[in-house]
Specification:
It is found in: Cell membrane. With 308 residues, the chain is an alpha+beta fold. It has two domains: 92 residues, Phosphorylase Kinase, domain 1 (2-Layer Sandwich), CATH 3.30.200; 205 residues, Orthogonal Bundle (Transferase(Phosphotransferase), domain 1). The protein has nine helices and eleven strands. Strands 1-2-3-4-6-5 form a six-stranded antiparallel β-sheet, with helices on one face. α3 runs antiparallel to α5. The longest helix is centred in the middle third of the chain and has 20 residues. The C terminus is likely disordered.
């Protein structure tokens, strides 16, 4: 699959370069030949393409992204299957095309910068929380909020990606009871126990991301995923350093409560608390947005979408 550069998928998407890979597939920067715009094309790997659960999750990811319309979530473009590709031995390709985001992953940004200034961290937190709030209002729980699933654009906005293991409230699950879904470093205590993830679980994970942005270190570290998961269930986190400021320290501490009932209940509630916490931190990362950049930043993005 790594030698597919130049191949045209579904008579529409021309593969340019591979930009990511994971447990189920590869992601390619591609050109949409209908619009001549770049897209991110996710393609299922050969060895999992015939697995029914993997197929169902991939279709659910496509359906989920297609149902969400928010500037903080990568926009859906297309989903489908292409059979009998002669160049690939006649096999079938299953693909998902989404908006191509020019920027870098938050994980790369943290690695390069070591830690982010509190004001910039709050920008990323609020953007992501508002995206989560939109998903939560639609009954979607992300279940895998982490720096590598948050992309930061060149102008500083954050976009949430990878809805591959979402939970749709009220629908049958695609995992067995007690199965742990998510990434240990950012896993809520209830997920670590094998309980169902909720919107408050996503809030916890985003708070863990915020802690890492501000300190440059993981909330809990361990020799293996199990020890990290146990820490999320049992250990109290070290408070943020004083340079973060009391409002931000209190914000993160509340969202990291072991009991999900004591956290903000969903992304929108968390975003409003972030907007309130940002005011004493100092000038915003985007000075043209005024003294309270939270709402103007979102409105500017929505106006930009309408112009398109």
């Amino acid at each position: 699959m790594t030698r597919m550069a130049g191949l045209v998928i579904a008579d529409r998407f021309k593969l340019k370069r591979m930009i990511g890979f994971g447990g189920t597939g590869q992601v390619w920067e591609s050109t949409d030949l209908r619009t001549m715009k770049p897209v991110a094309l996710k393609i299922l790997r050969d060895d999992v393409a015939d697995d029914l659960v993997t197929q169902a999750r991939f279709r659910r990811e496509a359906d989920t992204i297609a149902s969400l319309d928010h500037p903080g979530i990568a926009r859906f473009v297309d989903y489908g299957h292409v059979a009998d590709l002669a160049l690939l031995g006649g096999r079938t390709i299953t693909y998902l095309a989404t908006e191509f985001i020019r920027g870098e992953s938050l994980s790369a940004l943290i690695h390069r910068s070591e830690r982010l200034p509190p004001g910039r961290a709050l920008n990323v937190l609020e953007d992501t929380a508002r995206a989560l709030g939109h998903a939560h209002a639609a009954g979607v729980v992300h279940r895998d909020v982490k720096p590598s699933n948050i992309l930061v654009t060149r102008d500083g906005y954050a976009k949430l990606t990878d809805f591959g293991i979402v939970r749709i409230l009220g629908e049958a699950t695609l995992t067995h009871v007690g199965t742990v879904m998510g990434t240990a470093l950012y896993m809520s205590p209830e997920q670590a126990r094998g309980d169902a993830a909720t919107a408050a679980s996503d809030v916890y994970a985003l708070a863990v991301v915020g802690y890492e942005m501000i300190t440059g270190t993981a909330l809990f570290a361990g020799h293996d995923p199990l020890s990290v998961a146990i820490s999320h269930m049992e250990d109290e986190p070290t408070p943020l350093p004083d340079f973060a400021g009391e409002p931000l320290k209190a914000l993160i501490a509340r969202a990291l409560q072991k009991d999900p009932r004591r956290r903000p209940s969903n992304g929108t509630e968390f975003a409003e608390e972030i907007a309130a916490a940002r005011r004493p931190v100092g000038p915003p990362a985007h000075p043209d947005t005024g003294s309270d950049p939270a709402t103007p930043r979102i409105l500017r993005r929505l106006k930009g979408l309408r112009r398109k």
